[in-house]
Amino acid sequence: MPQNWDDEADVVVVGFGAAGACAAIEAAESGAEVVVLDRFTGGGASAVSGGVVYAGGGTAVQRAAGVTDSVPAMLAYLSEEVGDAVSPETLARFCESSAGMIDWLAAHGVPFDASVCPFKTSYPPNGYYLYYSGSEQAWPYRSLAEPAPRGHRAHGRGTSGRVLYAALAGAALSGARFRPRTRAVRLVVESGRVTGVECRTLTAHEPDRATPTDQTTREPNPPTPTPTSQTTHEPHHATPTDQTTHEPHHATPTDQTTHETDRATSAGQATGVARPTLAGRPVDVLNRLATKPGLYVPALARRLHRGVTAIEARWSRPWRVRARRGVVLAAGGYVNDRALMREHAPAYRGGLPLGTRADDGSGIRLGVEAGGVTARLSAVSAWRFLTPPSAFVRGALVDGSGRRFVDESSYGAAIGDRLIARGGRAWLLVDAPVVARARAELRAETLWFQRLQARYLLGAGRVSAGTVAEVAHRAGVSATGLAETVRGYGSDPDEFGKHPSLVAPLSTPPYTLIDLSFGRRLGYPCPILPLGGLAVDERTGEVLDPDGGAVTGLYAAGRNAVGICSHSYVSGLSLADCVFSGRRAGHHAATGDSW
């Protein structure tokens, strides 16, 4: 090895979340020598997500649950959601390979379960692991194709991202070397080709050499989605979350996340996992705290992260790794890059950044500095879920004029998009029977963090009165407009196409207006997730330059890249895209063959 390189491999992966892990697995199983880098200990937003993968077309889990679905139905629905984020050909490949993706994940240790959630929810409680995770049942989507539940939640108590990530990390480490606490600072470009990565590291010792394992010959086995006796128990440590990669719905990281990653990395010691310096351990602690409770208190997370950067500046040392075939950027999104958010998505300031402190746009900037071009940086998803409890979907969501603007059974991101477009102010009008039903549903339909949010909305987050005019006055909503909404609500067909089973007159006082406005509220935050990234070749994952040609030797995946979810978002679509784009990039980097 030349003296100016500290290590080398065929493929170098920057970022060890779901996309990075899938890229590493695919590259190693294609015969490549792989090194994976991560600024921290791996996991990223994927590990603190809800662990939901959007998949359909007749997956093994759907079949075990007795759910009928088809590739054409999935494609018809996603064509509306995805828009022109990717080509029709790429979306068709995604849908056609969807059932196989679940088989592939199961073969690499991700557990699934065939228990279908029977009610509308943003994220199912323990006991349910297959659910309608988008707007499939809302108008106009249900008229385009037969709805089917496609949200495949990894089987685990609480939010399941740590379960999904631990399985992928363990599989990746059986064929790759992992260097944690190593921050990529520059891509090395020689003669027009990306040939390596310059880093700063807090890792003390070099990992042992490794060669790809015999996983390349392992045949994938279909998942065995059978419920376990644990699925009805309440979680003990479940915490709410989002990558960028990924799919937390309201999930925030748990203290178990780093431990799950540590267990996964220890399983890969035979293939080389480097150890931290003394300065690396404080960084682990600060990063863990910046993730939780920092996710809910962004100012605290920023202060803790300043400690991380100070330690890195003082104690890290240079480290360079050569990539003989290619570098895959999989370092997360840019929700915590305040400058990028101000420039491209100013309307979303005030939302709760959904991601870890590593979702700072660094991977995207590396790609741009090497000659890549970005796209869709102004695409942001804001999540304003009405459920759980499912009773809330029976209410009427109004803006300041007192008038409805959406089918309330739509997915939370669809509601959020329309909310932002109307200035960010909205209230849910319900009457006494809806409130009573909502209270009765709290225990059965929620995880603890959802229960806290629902109780906030039913308490401090509402105003009530005996008449429509009085409740409108108390909320600052147009009384005339609200009265017109109440008179028309319950008619058939519904003005916004809401299913007749979810619409009934709101006629029993007291009337309640629940404040669902966008803004900074600890009791009911509005998570935001940017969806843009580096433009890539949709057959190879190679980063594109301003002329549309490939930046040779450079790939991007997950939220470092424009992908399936870069137009609009439904739960599980980001993690599914992490798998799809990560495998695509890893395969082409290792073999030169299109996906």
From TrEMBL:
Residues 10-205, 305-563 form the FAD-dependent oxidoreductase 2 FAD-binding domain. InterPro entries: FAD-dep_OxRdtase_2_FAD-bd, FAD-oxidoreductase_2, FAD/NAD-bd_sf, Succ_DH/fumarate_Rdtase_cat_sf. One of its GO terms (molecular function) is steroid dehydrogenase activity, acting on the CH-CH group of donors. Residues 233-263 have a biased composition (Basic and acidic residues). Keywords: FAD, Flavoprotein, Oxidoreductase. Its cofactor is FAD. Residues 199-276 are annotated as: Disordered. It comes from the Bacteria. GO terms for biological process: steroid metabolic process. PANTHER family: 3-OXOSTEROID 1-DEHYDROGENASE (PTHR43400:SF10), FUMARATE REDUCTASE (PTHR43400). This is FAD-dependent oxidoreductase 2 FAD-binding domain-containing protein. It comes from Actinophytocola xinjiangensis.
